From TrEMBL:
The chain crosses the membrane at residues 12-31, 43-61, 81-100, 106-125, 156-176, 182-203, 224-249, 261-279, 291-308, 314-334, 355-375, 387-404. It is a multi-pass membrane protein. InterPro entries: MFS_dom, MFS_trans_sf, TM_effector. It comes from the Bacteria. This is MFS transporter.
Length: 409
C-alpha cells in the first residue's frame, strides 16, 4: 500500500470523488441525450450545455471567497445534497411529460436548462472546495500522485463506467440514469461528511470583492499562472464547441444509439485513466514546460482526426489521445498551482483561475450549436457537424505556437 492510501481522509475523498463522478458520467450522456429526445435543433441543444457551464463564469470568484471563509468539507457536503435534490427535479419533469410535445420543445429545454444551471452552480462550489482541500489531506510532495490517482478514478467512473451505464439505463427507462445520479450525490455527501480535517484559522471576514481583490493581486503578480488560466479558458472554449455537437455527430454521422455512444465516450475515459497513471512520470522525466508542449499539439491533432473521420473506431482513438493530453496538462498545471499558492489564498486564486479557465466554456458551447445551425443550409448537415472540430484544431494550433514562444514555467 502506498503512503497516501494509509491516510483515512484521502481514502474518503478518493471514494467520494469516485462515486460523485459516476453520477457525473451518467448525466454527461443522459442530459444531452434527453435534449435530443426533446428537439433536434443544435442551438436549443447547445443551450443546455451553456446553462451547465455558465455558473463557472458567474460564481467562480465568490465561490473562491466562500471556500477560504468556510469549512471546505461542509461546503462539499452541502453542494452534493443540493445536487441530489435538483436531480430529483429533472426526474419530476421527465415523469410529468414523458412524450415532450414538439410544439412545446423550447419550454422543456428552458426547464431542463434552468435545472442544469442550478446543478452547475452547486458544482462550482463543490469542485473548488474539493480541489482546495487536497493539500490539507496529503503532503505537498505527494500532490502529483494524489492528483493523478483522483483524476484517474474520476475518468474511470465519469467516462469509462458512467456513459455506457447511462446508455443502458436510458434504454430501460429515460428517468433511470437521473435516479442513479441522485443516489451517487447522496453517497458522496455521506463519505465527505465522515472526513476529519483540523479546523482552519480563517481571517476576519470582509466584503466578498475586497477578499477577491487579494486573490487577483496574487494572480496578477504571478504572470505564468495568469497565462495558464487564460490559455485554459481558450482551450476549454474550443473543447466545449466540439463537445456540444458530439451527441449529434455520434447519432447522425457515426449512426450510434445511446448505449453505443456511451461506449464511444469510454475511449476518452481510457485515455484519462492512462494519463492519470502515466502523466506524472512524463512530467517528472520531461519537466513541466516540455510536458505542456507535448500536450498541446496532441489536442490539435485529435480534433483534426475527429473532424475528418466517419468511423467510430477512429473517433474513439482520437478521443483517447485527446483525454490523455488533457490529463497531462492537468497533472502539470494543477500540481504547479497547489504547490505555489499560499493556503489562505488557495480558494480565491483557484476560483479566479477557474473564472478565466472555465468561464469561457459556456460561450464555446453556444458557439458550437450556432456554427452547425449557420453552416448547415449552405454546406449540408454532415459538413456542418464536422466544422467545429476543424475550427477547434486551428485554434489549438495557434495556442501551441503562442505557448512555444511565450509560456515559461
Amino acid at each position: 500500500m502506498t503512503y497516501i492510501w494509509s491516510l483515512r481522509n484521502y481514502r474518503l475523498l478518493f471514494s467520494a470523488s469516485a462515486i460523485s463522478n459516476l453520477g457525473d458520467g451518467v448525466s454527461a450522456l443522459a442530459f444531452p441525450w434527453l435534449a435530443t429526445l426533446i428537439t433536434r435543433d443544435p442551438v436549443l441543444i447547445s443551450l443546455v450545455a451553456f446553462a451547465t457551464r455558465l455558473p463557472w463564469l458567474l460564481f467562480s470568484i465568490p465561490a473562491g471567497v466562500w471556500t477560504d471563509r468556510a469549512d471546505r468539507r461542509r461546503l462539499m457536503v452541502q453542494a452534493d445534497v443540493l445536487r441530489m435534490v435538483l436531480t430529483c427535479g429533472v426526474i419530476g419533469i421527465i415523469l410529468l411529460a414523458p412524450d415532450f410535445p414538439p410544439a412545446q420543445a423550447h419550454l422543456y429545454i428552458l426547464a431542463i436548462s434552468a435545472l442544469a444551471f442550478l446543478l452547475g452552480s452547486a458544482e462550482v462550489v463543490r469542485d473548488n472546495a474539493a480541489q482546495t482541500v487536497l493539500p490539507a489531506v496529503v503532503p505537498k510532495d505527494r500532490l502529483e500522485q494524489a492528483n493523478g490517482q483522483i483524476w484517474s478514478i474520476e475518468q474511470v467512473m465519469g467516462s469509462f463506467v458512467g456513459p455506457p451505464l447511462a446508455g443502458v439505463l436510458i434504454a430501460f427507462a429515460v428517468p433511470a440514469p437521473f435516479v442513479l445520479d441522485a443516489i451517487t450525490f447522496a453517497g458522496a455527501a455521506a463519505l465527505v461528511w465522515c472526513m476529519a480535517i483540523a479546523p482552519r484559522i480563517t481571517p476576519a471576514r470582509r466584503s466578498v470583492w475586497e477578499e477577491a481583490r487579494e486573490g487577483f493581486a496574487w494572480l496578477r503578480g504571478h504572470r505564468t499562472v495568469l497565462q495558464l488560466a487564460i490559455l485554459l479558458g481558450l482551450m476549454n472554449a474550443l473543447s466545449l464547441m466540439t463537445v456540444t455537437v458530439l451527441i449529434l455527430f455520434s447519432q447522425e454521422i457515426l449512426g450510434l444509439n445511446a448505449a453505443q455512444h456511451g461506449l464511444l465516450l469510454t475511449a476518452g475515459a481510457a485515455g484519462g485513466v492512462a494519463g492519470g497513471l502515466i502523466c506524472p512520470r512524463i512530467a517528472a522525466r520531461w519537466g513541466q514546460r516540455q510536458s505542456l508542449m507535448i500536450a498541446l499539439p496532441v489536442f490539435a491533432l485529435s480534433f483534426v482526426v475527429i473532424g475528418l473521420a466517419s468511423s467510430p473506431w477512429i473517433v474513439a482513438l482520437a478521443l483517447f489521445t485527446e483525454m490523455f493530453a488533457a490529463l497531462l496538462w492537468n497533472v502539470v498545471t494543477v500540481s504547479y498551482r497547489q504547490r505555489l499558492i499560499p493556503d489562505d489564498l488557495l480558494g480565491r486564486v483557484n476560483s479566479l483561475y477557474r473564472f478565466f479557465g472555465w468561464g469561457m466554456m459556456p460561450f464555446g458551447a453556444l458557439l458550437g450549436g450556432w456554427i452547425v445551425a449557420a453552416a448547415a443550409p449552405d454546406l449540408g448537415r454532415d459538413v456542418a457537424l464536422r466544422l467545429p472540430y476543424l475550427l477547434a484544431a486551428m485554434g489549438m494550433g495557434a495556442i501551441w505556437l503562442y505557448s512555444i514562444r511565450a509560456l515559461r514555467l
